[in-house]
Design goal:
about 45% helix; alpha+beta; 19 helices; 4-stranded antiparallel beta sheet; about 15% strand; 5-stranded antiparallel beta sheet
Length: about 600
């Protein structure tokens, strides 16, 4: 085993050295131009994709050279257990990938930490680990795709895609990566045998192999729905491409300008002041606010946006440090360290990672702050009540300032915000009529004695997570009294069979995918649970399960199964649905029948 391990290291050492040199050169060049530790998440995703592709190519090439029949038999007919052989090959590849991917990142982190004044936190030292694990997951997926049965082994490529959708962050994200690697390692161990085409007999191994195949079939069928959308687009009947969207639908509400959405909300209002408000809307400025979808998280490996800003008047550059919980300052021109900046006179630590917003404010999950260039101090301006989190940083709302939390909208005095640096006290608090995770926009005009506010809840309709979009118009007077002047339900412009297909194709797999996204993740107050689908879609899901069950009875009857295995597959197809039926057809070839064989006739002498 050791000799085989060393042989693989020697075999790919040159390629690993070249890849490491290229990786180090690219990272080194970019680190001279920008601070790689403070880039937006898209930059990290690009590097992650490159590392994953590198791992995939290594896995495909390495196993392809051994997968030839003669070489495969020669490899496995050694005086070693097949798993030890697989461990030697994959172990050498893991070492090579870590050297090519993780080591250059460590060197760049070391450079930034020791030779520059840039911020390098503990979370940045975890980036080499994350990059290496991503490359390893790609390698295992590529190796399994080459070793396993070609009819379905490609489904393993879906597993590393979980990293893009997982809600975990920091160390929890590394845990997600380790879970994916462990699952891929199990798949490779199951397939690494003299005849990879033979299906495993262990029920747990069969389930492990079938799961990614079913998830792959599930997403493939779901993506075929875009063909229907393409046909709508070509025929000119797609609501998103119509010159005028359907009246009363969520697309019309999302496309409308600020004044238009307020007028649409008041169309059915019977309030005696509705006519006056329509006139005021035409003459007033409309203020539109869009809620946040994510908040900066302590210890996150990536950034939603750079946690830095510059004070050109004082030649100071400020970068937030997760470890120190303060802003680290350095010279804007000479790049020399200056010190740290906390909150207020006592330079207190920030309660959560804080990021700039616009040119005036900074915010985190609990409060908003303002940096005063003259005093070079950070002042807390908005503090949310205990148990609430920021859903939108301070934004203008006429003469006042608007802040959204996950539960309410707060109006703060604009004059005081402009003329002082004290902690602001809210003038008005307006409870949200729905969950902020479904809120797509908030539009308002300022009246003589309050506000007219429109709240449009359409976020998640297209993905099938929201089934009942609506718009609600509120009248808020100067004393904080709130009354609903209009409420209208919005139509779902696309058929529910299309928007909810991600659910009715397989409710079991939909639930499993949602749980996988939430693995090791803390609860996100800005996200809301999907709403129950219409009852007709429930019946459609049941019908698909029945069709899958009946189809499994027919398909499994033409395959080679033991009676127990056959009825277990039939039951699984009845529970999971159509993706399970597709996996059954892919994983097991049809048994040849006597009628299909051509009888060889003896040749005439």
């Amino acid at each position: 085993m050791i000799d085989l391990f060393k042989g693989e290291l020697l075999r790919f050492r040159l390629w690993a050295a070249i890849a490491a040199a290229i990786n180090l050169a690219v990272l080194g060049f970019l680190s001279r131009m920008v601070d790689l530790a403070q880039q937006p998440i898209f930059v990290y995703q690009v590097f992650a994709a490159v590392y994953a592709v590198a791992g995939i190519l290594l896995g495909l090439y390495q196993m392809r050279t051994y997968r030839k029949p003669n070489q495969w038999l020669n490899l496995l007919h050694r005086p070693l257990h097949r798993l030890r052989i697989a461990g030697a090959l994959s172990g050498a590849s893991v070492v090579l990938l870590l050297a090519a991917v993780a080591l250059p990142i460590v060197l760049v982190c070391l450079y930034q930490d020791t030779m520059t004044a840039r911020v390098v936190d503990t979370r940045h030292w975890l980036l080499p680990v994350a990059g290496g694990l991503i490359a390893v997951s790609g390698y295992l997926a590529g190796a399994y795709a080459m070793v396993g049965n070609r009819r379905y082994s490609f489904a393993a490529f879906l597993l590393p895609n979980l990293f893009m959708y997982a809600q975990a962050s920091g160390m929890a994200m590394l845990g997600v990566q380790l879970v994916v690697i462990a699952f891929l390692a199990v798949l490779l161990a199951v397939a690494f045998k003299p005849d990879p085409a033979v299906q495993p007999r262990n029920p747990l191994a069969v389930l492990a192999v079938a799961l990614p195949v079913q998830v792959g079939a599930y997403f493939l069928i779901w993506m075929l729905g875009f063909g229907i959308e393409l046909w709508w687009t070509v025929s000119g009947t797609h609501p998103l491409n119509m010159p005028a969207p359907p009246r009363g639908g969520y697309i019309e509400a999302e496309r409308a300008e600020g004044k238009d959405i307020l007028l649409l909300g008041l169309e059915g209002s019977r309030d005696p002041e509705a006519a006056l408000w329509r006139e005021q809307i035409a003459l007033s400025d409309v203020y539109t606010t869009y809620p946040l979808r994510n908040l900066p998280v302590q210890g996150s490996l990536t950034n939603l946006s750079p946690l830095e800003f510059a004070d050109g008047d004082n030649n100071v550059f400020l970068v937030f440090s997760h470890d120190r919980e303060r802003f680290v300052t350095r010279g804007l021109r000479d790049q020399r360290p200056i010190g740290e900046l906390g909150v207020g006179e006592k330079q207190a630590a920030f309660p959560a990672p804080t990021m700039p917003y616009g040119t005036t404010y900074l915010y985190n999950a609990h409060a908003a702050y303002q940096y005063d260039s003259d005093q070079q101090r950070m002042f807390e301006r908005v503090r949310l009540p205990q148990g609430e989190v920021m859903a939108s940083p301070p934004a203008p709302a006429g003469d006042n300032i608007l802040v959204l939390s996950d539960r309410a909208a707060y109006f703060y005095p604009g004059r005081e915000a402009m003329n002082s640096l004290d902690l602001l006290q809210p003038l008005l608090r307006v409870a949200m009529p729905g969950h902020v995770g479904n809120l797509s926009r908030m539009d308002m005009i300022e009246l003589l004695d309050g506000y007219l506010v429109s709240l449009t809840y359409t976020w998640g309709v297209w993905s099938g997570e929201m089934q009942h979009p609506f718009q609600q118009v509120l009248r808020i007077d100067s004393h904080g009294n709130v009354r609903t002047v209009a409420h209208r339900a919005l139509n779902v412009d696309l058929p529910p069979v299309y928007t909810t297909r991600i659910w009715w194709l397989s409710p079991v797999l939909r639930t499993l995918c949602l749980r996988a996204q939430e693995l090791f993740a803390a609860k996100d107050p800005l996200r809301t649970a999907p709403q129950p689908v219409p009852r007709t879609m429930v019946w459609l899901a049941l019908a698909c399960c029945v069709v899958s069950l009946l189809g499994a009875m027919g398909v499994s009857g033409r395959q080679s199964h033991s009676p127990r295995a056959r009825w277990a597959w039939v039951l699984l197809c009845g529970v999971v649905g159509l993706p399970a039926l597709v996996s059954l057809w892919l994983m097991y070839p049809m048994r040849e029948r006597l009628d299909d064989l051509r009888l060889v006739q003896p040749a005439a002498a």
